[in-house]
Amino acid sequence: MIENFDAQAVPPRSIADALVGKESLLRGLLENRKARIGIYVFIVFIAISIYGRFFTPYSPFADNFQSYLAPSMAHYFGTDYNGQDVFSQFMYGTGVSLWVGAMVALMAVVIGALVGLISGYYSGIIDNVLMRVVDILLILPTFPLLVILSTYFKPTITSTIFILGILSWPFMSRVIRSQTLTIRERPFIKAAILSGMPGYRIVFSQIFKFVLPLIIINAIYTFVGAIVAQAGLAFFGLGDLASVNWGTMLYYAQNQNAVIYSAWWWIIPPGVAIAILGITANILGTGINEVFGKRSGSI
User: Fold this and answer.
1) CB atoms within 10 A of CB 139
2) Interacting residues of 158 by C-beta distance below 8 A, sequence separation 6+
3) Confidence bin at 292 (pLDDT 50/70/90)
4) Burial status of residue 122 (CB atoms within 10 A of its CB: 0-12, 13-18, 19 or more)
C-alpha cells in the first residue's frame, strides 16, 4: 500500500482538473498498462454485479433442482447441495459482496480522510487527540476484534458493513495526515493562510486536491480488504447467512461437504473471484504508483 508520494509543485486548479483534466488522474491511468488492466477487471465485476441483480437464469434462492448437478448448458456452474443454481448465486452474490466493499470503502474514506486532513492541518491538541484514538485502534488485533464485535451484533449485511467500516479508517487517516503535514508547508498554502482564507477552505479546496490520488489508492485496497473480511466472517458463520454472497457460498460449500462430493464448481467461482479481485487491486495500485511516481520524478 502506498503511504506517501510527492505532491506536484503546482496544484491543479480544481478537483475536476485533478480527475479529468489534461494532466488528470484518469488520463494518466488509462495510459498506464497495469492501471488500465485493473480498471477493466473492476468494470467487468461491476457489470456482473449489475446484471446479476436483475437478470439471472434462475432465482438464487430457488431450490428446484437435483443436488450436485455438474456444470452443463442448463446450469453453467452446476447446482449445490440444496439444488440451487450456483451460477445464479454467483451472479447475485457478486453484487452483494461488491456492495459491502464499496460501502466500507466509502466509510473509511469519509472518516479517514476527514480525520487525516483535520489532524494534519490544525496539529496541536486536535492532532494529539485524534492521533491517540487512531493509535489505539491501530494496535488492536483487527480480525479477532472483528470476530468479537460480530458476535455482539445481529448478523446482517448492514451490521457487517458498519463493523468493517469502523475498523478500516485508522490507517487511511494516518497516511492522509502524513501527506497533509507535507503539503501544509508548501508556499501556496502559506500564501493562502496569509491572504486570510479560512482553514476549512484551505483544507477542502487546496490540500484535498493533492491527497485525492492517495485517497483513491487506499480506497481500492480497503474495498478489496472489506470483501475478503466479509467473506471470512461468513465462512466462519459470523455473517448474514441468509444473504447470498461469495462468503456464504463458501460457508455452505464447506458445511455441506462439497469437497467430499467433489463439487468443485461450488467452491471455485467465489474463491477465484476473491483471488482475482485481490490481484487486481495490487496491479491497479502499482499502476497508480507508477503514474504518480513518474510525475513526481521518483521513477
Assistant:
1) 8
2) none
3) confident
4) middle
- Each residue of 101-155: pLDDT tens digit? 999 999 999 999 999 999 999 888 988 999 999 988 888 887 788 878 877 888 8
SS3 state of residue 298:
coil
Coil, helix or strand for 28?
Answer: helix
Give the amino acid at 175: V
CA 240 to mean position of chain CA atoms? 19
The predicted structure's pLDDT at residue 116: 92
Q: Which fold has domain 15-296?
A: MetI-like fold (1.10.3720)
Cell numbers at 108, concatenated: 473509511
Q: Measured between alpha carbons, how far is 75 from 286 in angstroms, rounded to an integer?
A: 37
CA distance 161 to 140: 19
pLDDT exceeds 80 at position 199: yes
Q: Distance (Å, rounded) from C-alpha 131 to C-alpha 123?
A: 10
- pTM equals 0.84
Is residue 104 within 8 Å of 287, Cβ to Cβ? no
> Phi/psi of residue 276, each to 5°?
-65, -40
Q: How far is CA 64 from the centre of its chain?
A: 35
Q: Which cell goes with 167?
A: 475498523
pLDDT of residue 25: 67
Residue 5 has pLDDT above 70, yes or no: no
If you count them, how many residues does the chain have? 299
Q: How far is CA 140 from CA 5, 53, 145, 150, 173, in A?
A: 27, 37, 7, 16, 16
